Amino acid sequence: MKQAKLMVLAAALTVTAVALAADTGLPKLAKKATYKVGFAQTESNNPWRIAQTQSMQDEAKKLGWQLVYTDAQGSAAKQVADVRSMIAQKVDAIFLSPREEKPLAPVILEAKKAGIPVFLIDRNVDQSLAKAGNDYVTFIGSNFIQEGQRVGQWIAKKTNGKANIIELEGTTGSSPANDRKKGFDDVIAKNPGMKILASQTGDFSRDKGRQVMETLLQAHPEVDVVYAHNDEMAIGAIAALEAAGRKPGKDVLVLSIDGGREAVQLVVDGKIAYVVECNPKFGPKAYSTLKDYAAGKKINAKIINPDREFHSANAAKLLPSAY
Fold first, then answer.
1. CA 89, 95, 97, 98: dihedral to nearest 10 degrees?
2. 189 with 273, same domain?
């Protein structure tokens, strides 16, 4: 009798374990000739985002896939609603570039529950709320921490480890802003002669970057290095510096991340000293990863894009290939 009860209990535990495994497993994706996929963009107010969207649209057209495209217009709440709309439309898969790390994690779980696999591109979410390989398939993008480190290391070498820095941060709560700051701070910690005078968000915006730079420049006229988390804020900072009679590239070094053509041209012109690329052309890699997933191939939790760097020695040569 006791043995029979133990067998029943063991069977029940086995069923529970199977149910849990099924609950935590990623949704399957059938192998088909064409797919209906969603792309939830965070905003379209700068060249980087426009280039990313164009790449996603061009690749979908090339493959003959149906693309459901939405623009969150800089609102995490709208992006959540956009993803829910895609779930209601029963798309085969969702490509998501999360506006912020925390607010977008729960809707990824909603997609998973609906049987729709999610692929994160460019930005990640809070891993304590949703995990790659368990709640969404993968993150495709750049190593943001390494980007910040590369900028910091270039400054340390160029200035012999002595710099008074103003940092223009990206959108508060976004993974690139968080990680680009962390990577940079890691280098600063090893160089006591490099001091961050002020660090404030410019929301990845050219005009906001200009406004913030104007204010910080008045408070910290001793600045000799500006580190912007993206090209747009760097270009805004240059406008503020020039309006104040400062000379970008001469008495103030300006550095950024992204590598758009306008910024690379400013490297050629000597106004930006150094740029780490963060290439926005995600279409080919995003769709090929989806096809690999549907074919049953193992997908890594992170797929890191190779990124170049632009400086005075190579900017003119690489300019035509910048987005």
1. 50
2. yes
Domain that residue 219 falls in: 144-278
CA torsion 199-99-121-304 (nearest 10°) is: 20
Residues 192 and 156: beta-carbon distance below 8 Å: no
Please write the tens of the pLDDT for every residue from 168-184. Answer: 999 999 999 999 999 99
H/E segment holding residue 200? strand 194-201
Q: Are 123 and 97 in contact (CB under 8 A)?
A: yes
Instruction: Note the pLDDT tens digit of each residue in 102-142.
Output: 999 999 999 999 999 999 999 999 999 999 999 999 999 99
Q: Is 315:271 a contact under the CB 8 Å cutoff?
A: no
Same domain, 268 and 290: no
Phi, psi of 240 (to 5 degrees): -65, -40
311 belongs to a structural domain: no
Q: Which two tokens stand for residue 269?
A: 């012109």
CA gap 29, 35 in Å, rounded:
10
Q: What is the pTM of this model?
A: 0.85
Residue reference for tokens 């609102």:
75
> Would residue 316 count as lying in a domain?
no
Domain co-membership, 148 together with 251: yes
Return d(Cα 182, Cα 294) in angstroms, integer: 35
Residues 213 and 200 in one domain: yes
Q: Are residues 274 and 284 in the same domain?
A: no
Report whether 150 contacts 125 (CB < 8 A): no
Report the sign of the C-alpha dihedral through residues 165, 195, 278, 108, in that order.
negative
